[in-house]
Amino acid sequence: MQRMSDQPTRWSPATVYPDMWADPDDDPRNKDGASPEGELATLKDFLTDYRLTLRMKCEGLDAEQLARRSVPPSTMSLLGLVRHLAEVERDWHNWITDGDPLPKLYGEKDADFHGAVAEQAVVDAAFSDMEREQAATDAALAEHPDLSERVGKDKIAVRELMVHRIEEYARHCGHADLLRECVDGRVGQ
């Protein structure tokens, strides 16, 4: 267990706003031009930005740093969040379809966090899993552009699925902020 004096010093590479993750001109989430037109485009834009934020919070860390757990008894780590979001994307994909659900990626409850170990192969697989599951869910939802349409066995509105996805990423990006700061002191928006 780390003592308070063992904590890394807070830092940011940003110079314009030193409490931000990156300077506005260097932030890949900043877009030139007007905001998206329409509700669906806006929802997709927010989801894209939160996905990118999670990746940014993991950039530059090795397998040990990505797998480093937060304070006990929590099993949360940045790598665990990546694995968790891959699993959650698969769950959402299962909600969209009428067929048999795809099996869990990592097995039993909390296996996404418990299996987040400091091995490069586990890190590579986690990011690959997340990208694949995001693409599969995106493709399934692209077949349903009407946000009011109800899909899957439970007839959930597409709008609800989109908002729930954004909420899930936003919540976990907040966790990622704190986890990254504990790893190397890097802070940011």
Commentary on this structure:
Residues 1-37 are annotated as: Disordered. InterPro entries: DinB/YfiT-like, MST-like. This is DinB family protein. By secondary structure, the protein is mostly helical. It has a single domain (38-184), classed as Four Helix Bundle (Hemerythrin (Met), subunit A). It has 6 helices and 2 strands. It has helices spanning 39-58, 63-67, 78-96, 111-114, 120-142, 158-184; strands spanning 150-151, 156-157. A two-stranded antiparallel sheet has the order 1-2. Strand 1 and strand 2 form a beta hairpin.
Helicity, in percent? 40-55%
Q: Report low-confidence residues grouped into runs of 5 or more.
A: none
H and E order: HHHHHEEH
Total E-strand runs:
2
Query: In the CATH hierarchy, what is the architecture at level 2?
Result: Up-down Bundle
Q: How many structural units, i.e. domains?
A: 1
Mean pLDDT: 88
CATH topology: Four Helix Bundle (Hemerythrin (Met), subunit A)
* Rg over C-alpha atoms, rounded to the nearest angstrom: 18 Å
Which class of secondary structure composition applies to the elements?
A: mainly alpha
CATH class: Mainly Alpha
Task: Provide a concise account of the structure shown.
Residues 1-12 have a biased composition (Polar residues). With 189 residues, this protein is mainly α.
Element layout with pairings:
Layout: H1 39-58, H2 63-67, H3 78-96, H4 111-114, H5 120-142, E1 150-151, E2 156-157, H6 158-184
Antiparallel strand pairs: 1-2
Helix pairs in contact: 1-6, 3-5, 3-6
